[in-house]
Amino acid sequence: MGGVRGELRPADAVKARSAILVAEDEVLIRLEIAEQLRGAGYTVIEAANAHEALELLHHSAEVKVVVSDIQMPGSIDGAALARVVRAEFPAIKIILASGHFAAAGGAEHDGFFRKPFDVAELVKHIRKLID
Amino acid sequence: MTEKPEAPETILVVEDDVLIRMPIAQYLRDCGYRVIEAVNADEAVTVLLHRDTVVDIVFSDIEMPGAMDGFGLAKWIREHRPGTEIVLAGTVPRSIDAAKELCEAGPLPKPYEAQAVHDNIRRLLSARRGAGKARQ
Q1: Whether B44 contacts B58, CB under 8 Å
Q2: CB–CB of B47 and A58 under 8 A?
Q3: For residue B128, which of A52, A78, A93 has the smallest C-alpha distance?
């Protein structure tokens, strides 16, 4: 099921740049984080919950960093998502965010931001992790 | 010479299936639009009511879980945001055709054929079905 020869396919376009996966159930917060990361030059893919995040990780683009809210509706939250990412995609960096201190639920991570946070600080942290 | 708009038009893509939403949103971004993603009509309404966000076009799936489907969302938009263009597409091929038309009228030259987006979505959905079978 290849694309037309010589054409740039979307998957290739995504792989050509560092992709950040943002998992956040509040649409306006997801929008703010995603747009500031795009403004900083990253390709951003968006998930509205942990289930969507796992679908994207299993079936699509090459993601370098997952930025996830911890409190999200659905069968798994951000801490559980972080544990799955660590186990199945150990090369991917994980940044967790929460409105509560010490809410990482014991999940390993590469950064924790207490909400509300300055997205510029998140961008700086991501640069340190992958650039 | 064709005049290009100073700021890219904003398209709100409303689609509950992330493996369809992501490639279409990415395609429209690559065509030069600012694209906002919403997973359902509730999220779309939240974006449309946000005072700092101006949406020019709402590009929505028809069948969606939640209190409102695409038709309900279109009705809400006609009542509350009458200047907003609405594109409703109920199937992947129709979504691709609509995205292609938007891309051809968009701020940047077409980055790749819309058929490639269709192939990508088919590949993603087929991989999901394969993974579903493997888990059973």
Answers
A1: yes
A2: no
A3: A52
A contacts of B26 (beta carbons < 8 Å): 10, 13-14, 43, 45
Closest Cα of chain B to A66: distance in Å?
16
pLDDT by residue (tens digit) across B37-71? 999 999 999 999 998 889 999 999 999 999 999 99
> The complex's ipTM?
0.90
Nearest CB partner across the interface for B119, out of A1, A48, A60: A1
- Beta carbons of B66 and A61 less than 8 angstroms apart: no
Percent of chain B at pLDDT > 90 equals: 81
Chain A residues with CB-CB distance to B55 below 8 A: none
* Axis crossing angle, helix B18-30 with helix A50-59, rounded to the nearest 10: 70
Backbone angles phi, psi at B88, to 5 degrees: -105, 130
- Check CB contact of A16 with chain B, cutoff 8 Å: no
**What's the rounded Cα separation, in Å, for the pair A65 and A18?**
8
pLDDT digits (tens, 9 = 90+) for B85-115: 999 999 999 999 999 999 999 889 889 999 9
The CA distance from B94 to B61, in Å, is 10
* Contact with chain B for residue A32, Cβ under 8 A: no
For the segment A37-83, what is each residue's pLDDT rounded down to a tens digit? 999 999 999 999 999 999 999 986 689 999 999 999 999 999 999 99
Minimum distance, in Å, between the CA of residue B1 and any CA atom of chain A = 27
Q: What is the Cα–Cα distance from B111 to B92, expressed in whole angstroms? A: 20
